[in-house]
Amino acid sequence: DYGVIKAFGDIYLRFLACWVDTARKAAVPILLVATLATGASLFYTVKHLGINTSTSDMLSSELPFRKLYDEYRRTFPNLRNNITIVVEGETPDITEDAAAALAVWLKTEIEEFKFVFDPASDPFFITNGLLFLDEDELADLS
User: Fold this and answer.
1) Is the dihedral of CA 9, 13, 18, 22 positive or negative?
2) Are residues 120 and 100 in contact, defined by beta-carbon separation less than 8 angstroms?
3) Interior CA angle at 44 toward 42 and 46, to 5°?
4) Which DSSP state fits 81?
5) CB 106, CB 87: distance < 8 Å
6) Strand, coil or helix: what is 123?
7) Contact assessment for residue 22 and residue 28, using Cβ atoms and an 8 Å cutoff
8) pLDDT tens figures, 2-55
9) pTM of the predicted protein model
10) How far apart are CA 8 and CA 10, in angstroms?
11) What are the pLDDT digits (tens) for 60-98?
12) d(CA 59, CA 49)
């Protein structure tokens, strides 16, 4: 058994020596091929591989809740890509006046905002605003 292992080792060493000698003699073409292969791999990587961090793309758009959500988004386009602005002031009156002035300015001066909603000046919330408070907050008001 030792003779077979030694013979295999000798063959392996001769193969490695031949391989290294061939690589030494053809160093320039091997470097060119390696450089071209590296460039092609880099090009492929840039064009085809990437990371998609969108959580909405992780699930199939054929799922029932995704179909309903897409329909909801199409039905109410003004409810996406929104910006919320919080206006604070020393008193509630100053805050309401500042929020109303900001809403008017955004509606008239900024064309990018297609829809501006100010709940403090909305007639529905003025009339029914207390319905949206917690019971503890309502108790504090009484």
Assistant:
1) positive
2) yes
3) 70
4) S
5) no
6) helix
7) no
8) 888 899 999 999 999 999 999 999 999 999 999 999 999 999 999 999 888 888
9) 0.42
10) 5
11) 889 999 999 999 988 888 777 888 899 999 998 999 999
12) 19
